Structures are given as structure tokens and as C-alpha cells.
Amino acid sequence: MLHHTRCNWKIGVESFLDHYHPKFVHHSMFRATGASLEDMRANSVADLGGGHTELGFSHHNVAVGRPLAWAGGIAPERLGDYVPAMEAAYGAEEANRRLIAGAPHVMVFPNLCLAQMNLIVFHPLGAGECVQETAPVLLDGAPALNRRTLRQCEGAMGPAGLIIADDAEIGERTQTGLMARSPAWLELSRGLERDHTDSDGALRSPDESDETTHRGFWQHYAQVMARR
Ligand SMILES: [Fe+2]
Questions:
Q1: In the chain, domain spans
Q2: How far is the CA of 91 from the centre of ligand 1 (A)?
Q3: Separation of 30 CA from ligand 1 center, angstroms?
Q4: How far is the centre of ligand 1, averaged over its atoms, from the C-alpha of 64 (Å)?
């Protein structure tokens, strides 16, 4: 699916890599679907280097301990043969761990976003407009899961999608606000004191509202743009 939005492509990328906006920008989605804000809490935000970023959910999901809570809380028995196939492939214990832990949200610099069962790419059209391309991730041999993924993608990212319309509206308002050029600089220092280098070499903060990911993206973007 393609969505034309009147904002710079980097505003779209920013809306993907921060995790403080869903609570208010997508509040109507939580109200309409009854989804729990708690089920989509990120336990860390990380600058992976090279402009790549991560919103980590797995530690929180493991603490919650419910399989597929991260996927809208669907009951595993509604996914046909998917869970038995996972158990056959990985063993019951490892399959359960994977179904509970889910996957992170990863932004591959500069414009590819991996959001569990959705792929998103932001294509620049000009300084003030872009196209957001989204596609569901479908798996071989998992028809029930694929049907669910398609419906979720349509509901969130389709023409009347609950999520993409919110982000597009805020992206366009942000573009308008930035064109005022005053103040000249945006403050992105939230959580600087919590950033620490983890055992994998990523710069990480345990607070989902910290701007660690924004800083990682923009610092690398500035470096790339300064090269001759
Ligand atoms: Fe959003």
C-alpha cells in the first residue's frame, strides 16, 4: 500500500523510531480496539550505530508472559496450524518463548522500518512530501496467521487505517510547524543521562520515552550529509 503524505520523509522515519507518541497520537486506536497500552510497552530504546535504531519489546513481553500479546493478544488456537508448526520446528519450550517474546521494531538507516509483521519504506518525493509504502510479512505454510496479518495490516495501514492516518496527520502538522523556522533548533536531549553502552555495543536507554533513537538517526544523517 502506498500513502502520499505532505511531510518530509525523515518526519515519517522519526514517527516510527520514537515510542512516546503512540500513547497520545494513537489514543483513538486504543479506544476503538480495546488494545492495551501496556501490551505495547517498549522496555528499551537503542541507537545501534550507523543510523540504525531499535525499540525493544521482548523483555517486557517475557515479563507479561502471554503468547502473542504483542500481536493484539490473539488466542494461539485461532491461528490454525501455526503454533503446532512452531512447536514441531523448535520444540514446545523454545516455540513458546518465541511466541511470548515477539520481535523488536527496527529502523534500517535511512528509510526501511521493520515492525513485527509489517515492512514500511519512506520514499522522498521532495523536501515537503513523501510516499509511505507498507507491506505485510507473510509466511510460507501459515495461512491462518497470514489471513490475520493481512487483516491487521489493512486495519492499521490501509486507506482508512487506524494507525497510518494518525501518523500522516501529525507528520503534516509537524511539517507545517517546522516551516515556521522558529525556534531554529529542536531539543532531542531527553534521556541523555540514561544512555549507556550495552554488551552488544549499542547505545541503549531503559526508558521508552527517551530520544536515544532520534539522536542515533540524526547524528548519522548529519555525518552522511557532511561527506564530500
Ligand atoms: Fe505512529
A1: 2-57+104-169+200-226
A2: 35
A3: 12
A4: 23
Cα(224) to ligand 1 centroid in Å equals 26
Provide the CATH number for the domain formed by 2-57+104-169+200-226 in this structure: 3.90.380.10
Q: Grid coordinates standing for 178?
A: 517546522
Please tell me the distance from the alpha carbon of residue 5 to that of residue 52, in angstroms, as a whole number. Answer: 23
Q: In this structure, are residues 207 and 55 in contact, taking their beta carbons and an 8 Å threshold?
A: no
Q: How far is the CA of 16 from the centre of ligand 1 (A)?
A: 6
Report residue 14's pLDDT band, with 50, 70 and 90 as the boundaries: very high
pLDDT in tens, 26-65: 998 888 888 777 778 899 999 999 999 999 999 989 998 9
Q: From ligand 1's centre to the CA of 113, what distance in Å? A: 12
User: What's the 17 CA to ligand 1 centre distance in angstroms?
Assistant: 9
155 by Cβ neighbours in 10 Å (0-12 / 13-18 / 19+) ranks as: middle
CA–CA distance, 211 with 92 (Å, rounded to integer): 38
Residue 81 Cα, ligand 1 centroid: separation in angstroms? 32
167 C-alpha to ligand 1 centroid (Å): 5
Largest Cα separation within the chain, whole Å, is: 59
Write the burial class of residue 162 (CB in 10 Å: 0-12 exposed, 13-18 middle, 19+ buried).
middle
In the reported structure, the alpha carbon of residue 144 is separated from the centroid of ligand 1 by a whole-number distance in angstroms of: 27
Tally the residues of the chain: 228
What average pLDDT does this structure show over 113-126? 95
What Rg value do the Cα atoms of the chain yield, rounded?
A: 18
